[in-house]
Design brief:
Blueprint lengths: L1 H18 L9 E5 L26 H13 L4 E6 L7 H14 L4 E7 L9 H10 L9 E2 L2 E7 L6 H11 L6 E5 L11 E3 L11 H19 L4 E6 L3 E2 L10 E2 L5 H12 L4 E4 L20 H17 L30 E4 L3 E5 L8 E6 L3 E6 L7 E6 L2 E6 L3 E4 L17 H13 L10 H4 L5
Parallel strand pairs: 1-2, 1-11, 2-3, 3-5, 5-6, 6-7, 7-8, 8-11
Antiparallel strand pairs: 4-5, 9-10, 12-15, 12-18, 13-14, 15-16, 16-17
Helix pairs in contact: 2-3, 4-5, 6-7, 7-8
Length: about 450
């Protein structure tokens, strides 16, 4: 009995180590995962297909079922889209729940950091500090060689200098792994790896050519920066966003699974460190592999076959742990103290602040101000204490107070009445339709511009 007990303890200890033992030499298969759906999402007027079992993302039994499905298909971790910790947004609570459900199933969860989140309030560094100090310490968080893994959606919303400053505050010693995204690989001067969220383009491009092109660029960055950079190849089953973007959307036919199989072969042929699936459940853009009314569990089976091929040696996976790590970043420079102005002034303290025609995010954007700009404060409305009326080039607008440092004789600021907010019938109808389709806006393939209207 003692021998049996010792054997069981040994096996359990080995199992516990395996939960947290991802190595840079492991050929990981990851998948994007979204947690902002509810029962009102599932309608054919906005979606080309529906889940085999419609659900609410906040349902923990659904999370468990989806994790089990992913594991059966050879997926090692979900990359959960995250809007940051603030604003009471549901991605924070759902990420926390997903981590618990993953731990119970020996599964991993990483973060897809949504750089255009309407809930960041300009504090990207603060959100990342929260991710690394809170979520990354969960036993189920995805770590490679002990380093937490975070993917970034559209980091080019900000400049390279912005990310250098953020990283020097949040992770100057490169204790975590940051994966950039998009067609600009120059961001590898700050980030630790690169991928494309989508390689299914309109007009279409050759998948093998595209994957190998970016694999070569990542290899060039390894040589240029003298530090290891991860190449993460993308696979997609198809694409169809015409119902959410009429007039601008497009369809990449799934070809009965043929497109997905070609996508896997192209990805494996580019010799990636990891493969990421776009996506497990991005239903509005039609890139899901989750079981559906139209396809059943066909794409879970195809995923299992592709994953098995990749993990059995289809790709070349270099052990990064023995290679040079990036040199630590210097601390951010101490800001030059701004003079105390003689007149009420708002100094912009974030990378980009929206100027609106009224003191609320319901008002339209009329301009933008960048870090360090000085805006003359011309009024405030006591009903909107968090906003300042400012004047720039003889144009009056409003800026959200937490994005600026107000200075000068603020007692002199006159009280003013904010303009009347008018909403057209068309805008109201569009807002109602959007709310009925998704609990949160689908931002994945949008440019940064439209969603600035959701930020202060």
């Amino acid at each position: 009995m003692l021998l049996i007990a010792l054997t069981v303890v040994t096996l359990l200890a080995g199992h516990s180590r395996s939960v947290n033992a991802q190595s840079s030499s492991d050929p990981l298969v990851l998948a994007y995962y979204y947690t902002w759906f509810d029962e009102n999402t599932w309608t054919y007027d906005k979606l080309s297909d529906l889940p085999a079992q419609p659900y609410a993302s906040s349902d923990r039994s659904v999370m468990g079922r989806q994790i089990d499905q992913a594991k059966s298909a050879g997926i090692d971790a979900f990359l959960v889209a995250w809007y940051g910790p603030g604003g009471g947004n549901q991605t924070e609570a759902n990420l926390t729940a997903m981590l618990d459900e993953a731990q119970a199933r020996n599964f991993k969860i990483g973060i897809l950091f949504e750089t255009d989140s309407p809930f960041l309030g300009g504090d990207v560094a603060g959100a990342l500090q929260h991710a690394l100090s809170v979520h990354a310490n969960h036993p189920a968080f995805l770590r490679v060689d002990g380093r937490p893994v975070i993917f970034f959606w559209h980091p080019t919303n900000y400049g390279i200098g912005f990310w250098q400053n953020v990283r020097s505050q949040v992770d100057p010693n490169y204790s975590s792994i940051w994966i950039s995204e998009g067609v600009d690989t120059s961001y590898l001067s700050v980030f630790d790896g690169h991928h494309l969220y989508s390689n299914t383009w309109n007009p279409p491009a050759d998948l093998s050519y595209t994957d190998n092109k970016f694999a070569r660029q990542v290899e060039a960055a390894r040589q240029q920066y003298g530090a290891y950079k991860y190449w993460v190849a993308t696979v997609m089953p198809g694409y169809n966003d015409v119902r959410i973007r009429p007039g601008s959307g497009f369809v990449q036919d799934r070809e009965g699974g043929g497109y997905y199989q070609r996508s896997w072969q192209a990805a494996i042929g580019s010799q990636p460190n990891w493969i990421v699936i776009t996506s497990f459940n991005e239903w509005p853009e039609g890139s899901y592999i989750e079981p559906s009314a139209a396809f059943g569990d066909q794409y879970l089976g195809l995923t299992a076959a592709g994953s098995q091929q990749f993990k059995s040696g289809g790709g070349v996976n270099v052990a990064a742990s023995g290679l040079a790590a990036p040199a630590p970043l210097p601390p951010p420079p101490t800001p030059t103290p701004l003079p105390e102005p003689d007149t009420p002034t708002a100094y912009v303290e974030v990378d980009l602040a929206n100027l609106r025609d009224g003191p609320s995010t319901d008002y339209s954007i009329v301009g933008r101000a960048t870090t360090g700009m000085a805006l003359a404060i011309s009024g405030r409305d006591p009903n909107y204490a968090d906003w300042w009326q400012v004047t720039e080039h003889e144009q009056t607008s409003w800026v959200y107070g937490p994005l600026v440092r107000a200075a000068g004789p603020l007692a002199q600021v006159p009280l003013v009445a904010s303009p009347t907010l008018t909403i057209s019938v068309a805008d109201l109808a569009a807002s109602i339709a959007s709310t009925a389709t998704n609990s949160l806006p689908d931002l994945q393939s949008s440019t940064f511009e439209p969603y600035l209207s959701h930020e202060p």
